[in-house]
C-alpha cells in the first residue's frame, strides 16, 4: 500500500520529534521534512522560563508556510488545541483536538490563525499562527473579542506579532 505525502509527513514528523526530544529538543523546535517543516508547540501548565505564567502554549506564536505541519504536544495533562471559530482564514479547515491528545495540523491556507485550549481559554491559554502572507485576515483576527486573561495574553501576542511582521516588511524592502 502506497502512503500519501501527508501520511509520510505525519509519520516522519512524529519520528523526528521522538528522536529530537530525548536529545534536548525544546518547545518551538522545527524539523524539515521534504521541504515542509514540522513546528512543535507544547501544551503546558506553566511556562518553562516564567513560572508565574500558567496554562500556556510554548511557543505561542509560530511563523510558518503553507505545507508545514503544526504539532501540538501534550506535555502536561488537561489540555487540547483547537482553532478559534472565527479566527482562521477563509477556506481553511478548523481543527479540534481531544483533551490529553497530541494534534497535528497541516497548513493549506495562508493567513492568521487563532487557537486555544478549550478548558483554559479564558485563563489565557491561546496562541497565533502566522502563515505566509497574513494580510488577508490579520487585522480582522486582531479585532476578535477576547475574555478574561485571554484578552491580556492576546494583547501581548499581537504586539510581538506586529514586531515580527514589521521586521519582515523592513527586510523585504
Please state the structural category: alpha+beta
Record field, number of beta strands: 9
Low-confidence stretches: 5-26
Helical percentage: 25-40%
Q: Secondary-structure element sequence?
A: HEEEEEEEEEHH
The CATH homologous superfamily is termed: Cupredoxins -  blue copper proteins
Strand content: 25-35%
CATH architecture label name: Sandwich
C-alpha Rg, in Å? Answer: 16 Å
Provide the residue-averaged pLDDT: 86
- Cα(first) to Cα(last) distance is 48 Å
Outline the structure in words.
The chain has 173 residues and is an alpha+beta fold. The protein has one domain: Immunoglobulin-like (Sandwich), CATH 2.60.40. Helix content is 26%, strand content 28%. It is built from three helices and nine strands; from the N terminus they run αβββββββββαα. It has helices at 5-20, 138-142, 148-171, and strands at 30-33, 36-46, 54-58, 61-64, 69-74, 82-83, 103-106, 111-116, 126-131. Strands 1, 2, 3, 5 and 7 form a five-stranded mixed β-sheet that branches. Strands 4-9-8-6 form a four-stranded mixed β-sheet, with helices on one face. Strand 1 and strand 2 form a beta hairpin. The longest helix has 24 residues, at 148-171. The radius of gyration is 16 Å and the shape is globular. The termini are far apart. Residues 5-26 have low confidence and may be disordered.
